[in-house]
Amino acid sequence: MQEMQEGPKYFVSYTGTDLPFHLINPIGPDGLTNRNTFIRAYFNGDGRLARFEKIVYGEIELSHRYEYYTSGTLKSAEIAMQDEEPLRLSFDETGQRLANAEP
Q1: What confidence score (pLDDT) does residue 100 get?
Q2: How far is residue 91's CA from residue 69's CA, in Å, rounded to a whole number?
């Protein structure tokens, strides 16, 4: 497991279909009081997105966890929807998805 930087950062949403997702519209913790939906994100020591949780009405609806090769290429992703088993994806060092996805 890769080392996390201090505390979470918050975002309005994410964009894209490729992993890792790109988080957009950062907001400060004080901007959460009037929001029903937001993203809580954690970054590794290299500043890469390591984990995020989409919070909807106080519940985690979706979460992603990412690990990277030392080159910065995505190595694995774990995607979990509320009340479902996580999906684990693996990638080779060029970023190509491997066929070993497991529920």
Answers
A1: 64
A2: 10
Sheet strands side by side (includes 9-15) = 22-27, 9-15, 37-43, 49-56, 59-68, 74-81, 87-90
For the record, the structure tokens of 32 come out as 């959460």
d(CA 8, CA 43): 8
Rg (CA), the chain: 14
* Helix H or strand E encompassing 83: none
Tokens representing residue 59 in the block: 């519940």
Whole-number Å distance between alpha carbons of 52 and 8: 9
Quick check: pTM over 0.85? yes
